[in-house]
Amino acid sequence: MKVYLAGPDVFLPDPLAMAERKRAICAAHGLVGIFPVDAHPEEAADGGAAPWLQIYRRNEAHMRGADAVIANLTPFRGPSADVGTVYELGFMRALGRKVLGYSNVAAGLLPRTLGFLGGAAWRDAEGRWRDADGMALEDFGLADNLMIDGGIHEAGGLLIRREVPKAERWSDLTAFEACVKALAGGR
Amino acid sequence: MKVYLAGPDVFLPDPLAMAERKRAICAAHGLVGIFPVDAHPEEAADGGAAPWLQIYRRNEAHMRGADAVIANLTPFRGPSADVGTVYELGFMRALGRKVLGYSNVAAGLLPRTLGFLGGAAWRDAEGRWRDADGMALEDFGLADNLMIDGGIHEAGGLLIRREVPKAERWSDLTAFEACVKALAGGR
Fold it and tell me: What is the pTM of this model?
């Protein structure tokens, strides 16, 4: 089973080292991990496109060839997960693949968003939290926007939230490995 | 042609008023606009599920029944677009539908992210921008994460960036209407 390893891990100082670590965990459980920066056979024919478009096409080809995705949904530059990762989550759900995710922050979307907004959040007449622009805050007790939690739920997947100290947030793979185990075990 | 109207517009103080405005613009160009909060025929059978899951399933059903998506990608609580909207963009791209988007902020992802990070951004030895965690900033001159720009590009769509004063950022539909026109004209 091929697993696409989505996440802002590609932005790490040494993404190839992370690719190796994740691939090794997959292999230990009988799965083949595919990291976004891995080469793809179709790539060679695409030399004329802009570099960013080559990356996009490679990631899409990797996803189409994978049976599942495990997404690192740890909040990234704001209260929610990395948008590139979330795009890939929606893409894989639409293809009917297995979708799993994990976050190294345990707090749910509402408390995270309140923390992000600071004093700018307020309650309207119905008691609903809103931001300075009057835009409502989701309050369903979920890990992130309901499209993320919902997509994983409908894809039969697993969404693990685990509190990791800030210094290890982008390196700790405990929750990732739990996803790999669940996927290898048929979840 | 049915168009799914994705965006954080659902969080507005009066989302139904925005639904009416967007639907009217679509109708003026011969298109049928579908807003996420619109009722869906399959919904009645789903009364037992949690409210958030009913919303997810309704949105997915709306998307599967639509020929195209026009996404409001105006930055939302951070440097990037709303994650729920981006999930739907990836979903529609994987289904092979037309994908268009607009943002009422003209600045690209890199300057927006630098503004978001403030003094925390720094350049590494190769001159690449990084954040306080050492995570790299994308620097391709794009509107948002390359998966967003790339998905729209590959789906034959259009991504309009237009600077709108902050007070009208969530109400101005000039760029939205330009997307509707392009879609109606066969783009």
Answer: 0.97
Question: Which parts of chain A have pLDDT scores under 70?
Answer: 44-46, 187
Which among A61, A115, A82 has a CA at the least distance from the CA of A10? A82
DSSP labels, A74-113: ---SSSS--HHHHHHHHHHHHTT-EEEEEES--S-HHHHH
Amino acid identity at A112: R
B30-45: pLDDT as tens digits: 999 999 998 887 776 6
Whether the predicted pLDDT of B79 surpasses 80? yes
CA closest to B167 among chain A residues: A133
Distances (CA, A) of A87 to A6, A41, A176, B32, B159: 10, 23, 19, 25, 16
CA closest to B81 among chain A residues: A83
C-alpha–C-alpha distance, residues B142 and B149, integer Å: 7
CB contact under 8 A, A53 and B153: yes
State whether A127 and A81 are in the same domain. no
Q: What ipTM was estimated for this complex? A: 0.97
Chain B residues whose beta carbon lies within 8 Å of the beta carbon of residue A56: 146-147, 149-151, 153-154
pLDDT of residue A40: 85
CB < 8 Å to A146, chain B: 52-53, 55-56, 84
> Average pLDDT, stretch B105-112?
98
Domain residue limits at A170 = 2-108+143-184
Please indicate, yes or no, whether residues A6 and A74 belong to a single structural domain of this protein: yes
Q: What is the end-to-end Cα distance of chain A in Å, rounded?
A: 13
Do A32 and A120 sit in the same domain of this protein?
no
CATH code for position B177:
3.40.50.450
